Amino acid sequence: MYVRHLQVTDFRSWPHADLALEPGITALVGSNGQGKTNLVEAVGYVATLGSHRVASDAPLVREGAGRAVVRAAVVNGGRELLVELEITPGKANRARINRGAAAKPRDVLGILRTVLFAPEDLSIVRGDPGERRRFLDELLVSRAPRFAGVRSDYERVLKQRSALLKSAGAAKRGGAKADLRTLEVWDGHLARYGAELLAGRLDLVAAIAPHVTSAYANVAATDEATMPSSRVASLRYRSSLGASLPEGYGEPMGKEADVEVLEAALLEELARVRPQEIERGVSLVGPHRDDLELLLGELPAKGYASHGESWSFVLALRLASYHLLTEDGAEPVLILDDVFAELDRRRRSRLAELVAGAEQVLVTAAVAEDVPPELAGVRYDVREGEVRRVQ
Ligand SMILES: Nc1ncnc2c1ncn2[C@@H]1O[C@H](COP(=O)(O)OP(=O)(O)OP(=O)(O)O)[C@@H](O)[C@H]1O
């Protein structure tokens, strides 16, 4: 698939921008702060309804404007769809597909798929478990948009249940009796949505793990077969169910995870930890407490990997996402935002070689020399609020 046309109004620094795009490689080049990332961020927003840089929509709307609009014409399998998203912080965002009636933003998920590489990605390896959960969940939604609903249902239930635990804890400390009947209802919801999300993540980890191992070997430009086992990259899902995770679910499995089995395990564990949960006023069990371990040999990349190895892991995760989505039947658009400036020469050219043949690659760079020669293609200069084609 590819984006044929992008138009933004009052998005970030842009009052208006209009960009005709083609399959193949397009580089947006311009000095710092000219708005290059803002443009690829808009493309990413159409695919994910979120930004890779901020958690809320407010910063996406140009200062002083009330709403931002992003329009993208997406070509997939010879068919073109026009997606229009209106971002109005504090109100419900709106979407339209092919100039039709107003739709829910979530209805556009799946029309455009992107895999975005950015300097912020280093935190997937080095940051808190939340960063790795976000990586997994975003890919999950990209593969199967219904998980956007599962995730938001889970988060809603978690919030309500945590508030209840907090007040139950306060009641108990004050000598009153906590109302635990409502808690049981919330346990049921948490286990239901939690099991769906957990099953989705476990299946995803099983599907992507081999791609990560081979992508890491490719980025590190070594032969996987001869690579010392201490340098082989692998993934392990660490569930807050711990030892209560049903047998066989700890390692990538050859079959799909069973939602009902996981639901029962979550319910059992919730019952077991309830006294601690009330004591501490927090939800201790569920996918919001899980982590994705990134391993080099037997050691976690976090805390052990060198800067270069950490970058190789990040690139491997993104490349693996690209291969997995392509294998699913919809080759995603690759977005490489300012990423080459972060890499040493060897990783830079490995990455360039590995993405050069993709259907569409959008690259941003502060200086043209940061774009590797393998990625010569269409070039735009981005300067003083204008995007001008120069090559
Ligand atoms: N909501 C907003 N309203 C107005 N301007 C904004 C908004 N959000 C960001 N900007 C401005 O956009 C500019 C940053 O744009 P962007 O991140 O796209 O730069 P860039 O060209 O990618 O630069 P770099 O090479 O440094 O990454 C900054 O000047 C910032 O002040």
TrEMBL record:
The RecF protein is involved in DNA metabolism; it is required for DNA replication and normal SOS inducibility. RecF binds preferentially to single-stranded, linear DNA. It also seems to bind ATP. The keyword Cytoplasm applies. NCBIfam families: recf (TIGR00611). Gene3D superfamilies: P-loop containing nucleotide triphosphate hydrolases, RecF/RecN/SMC, N-terminal domain. Keywords: ATP-binding, Cytoplasm, DNA damage, DNA repair, DNA replication, DNA-binding, Nucleotide-binding, SOS response. The keyword ATP-binding applies. Residues 2-366 form the RecF/RecN/SMC N-terminal domain. It is found in: Cytoplasm. This is DNA replication and repair protein RecF. Belongs to the RecF family. ATP binds at G30, S31, N32, G33, Q34, G35, K36, T37. Its main location: cytoplasm. InterPro entries: DNA-binding_RecF, DNA-binding_RecF_CS, P-loop_NTPase, RecF/RecN/SMC_N, RecF_2.
